Amino acid sequence: DTEVTQTPKHLVMGMTNKKSLKCEQHMGHRAMYWYKQKAKKPPELMFVYSYEKLSINESVPSRFSPECPNSSLLNLHLHALQPEDSALYLCASSQILGNQPQHFGDGTRLSIL
Amino acid sequence: AQKVTQAQTEISVVEKEDVTLDCVYETRDTTYYLFWYKQPPSGELVFLIRRNSFDEQNEISGRYSWNFQKSTSSFNFTITASQVVDSAVYFCALRYSSASKIIFGSGTRLSIRP
């Protein structure tokens, strides 16, 4: 079991749906990350939050909307996604934004119909 | 350029063999950090090791060992007496001091056959 918990584990949604991915950690980490990973590819950074503030947005389309309601929670709101957005979405956290190791969750496998 | 290259796309060995996964990196920074992560079929990335650019000591942790050589910009990972549970995709990654993100290599898929 990982210390970063992601829900749901699997999600299938239509292009007109609105859904959210959730990530939770209770390690007291103050930096949290969203990555997207396509099959047989490395993870690609999407967003970074540091002390609940958005620190990095890697030019992600606005149909992905991150939210950090508190230091333990990170959400990714999805709306009007495209089939090419189907991927594994990984959440990670680290003590602070720096060179500490990032701890990853199991990911959410998202399929867009 | 800041880059991580894992030239081995896939490796398959028989259980109990030793196997080395190669990682070559490029960075202009003098301060940087290198990482290895393991991604089993379940999906999560498991942190294995972090090494900073000023520490060239090799490290051993059980059956795992890492060889960091700045002269060749390499950070190779060896599994001794491999086991089926070692089957996974392994990613080498780089974070240089002036950046806020990790650069991952393309990964090496390791299959250990019984």
Could you outline the blueprint of secondary structure elements for this entry?
The complex is a heterodimer of chains A (113) and B (114).
Chain A (H helix, E strand, L loop, with lengths): L3 E4 L2 E4 L4 E8 L5 E7 L6 E7 L2 E5 L6 E7 L2 E7 L7 E8 L8 E2 L3 E5 L1
Parallel strand pairs in A: 2-11
Antiparallel strand pairs in A: 1-3, 3-8, 4-5, 4-9, 5-6, 7-8, 9-10, 9-11
Chain B lengths: L2 E3 L4 E5 L4 E3 L2 E3 L5 E8 L6 E7 L6 E3 L2 E6 L4 E6 L8 E9 L6 E2 L3 E6 L1
Parallel strand pairs in B: 2-12
Antiparallel strand pairs in B: 1-4, 3-9, 5-6, 5-10, 7-8, 8-9, 10-11, 10-12
Can you summarize this structure?
Chain A has 113 residues and is an all-beta fold. Chain A contains no helices and eleven strands.
Would you give an account of this structure?
- The complex is a heterodimer of chains A (113) and B (114).
- By secondary structure, chain A is mainly beta.
- Chain A has no helices and eleven strands.
- In chain A, strands 2, 4, 5, 6, 9, 10 and 11 form a seven-stranded mixed β-sheet that branches. Chain A has a four-stranded antiparallel β-sheet with strand order 1-3-8-7, with no helix packed on it.
- In chain B, a hairpin with a 4-residue loop joins strand 8 (64-69) and strand 9.
- Chain B is mostly beta strands.
- In chain B, strands 2, 5, 6, 10, 11 and 12 form a six-stranded mixed β-sheet that branches. Chain B has a four-stranded antiparallel β-sheet with strand order 3-9-8-7, with no helix packed on it.
- Helices cover 0% and strands 54% of the residues of chain B.
- Chain B is globular, with a radius of gyration of 14 Å.
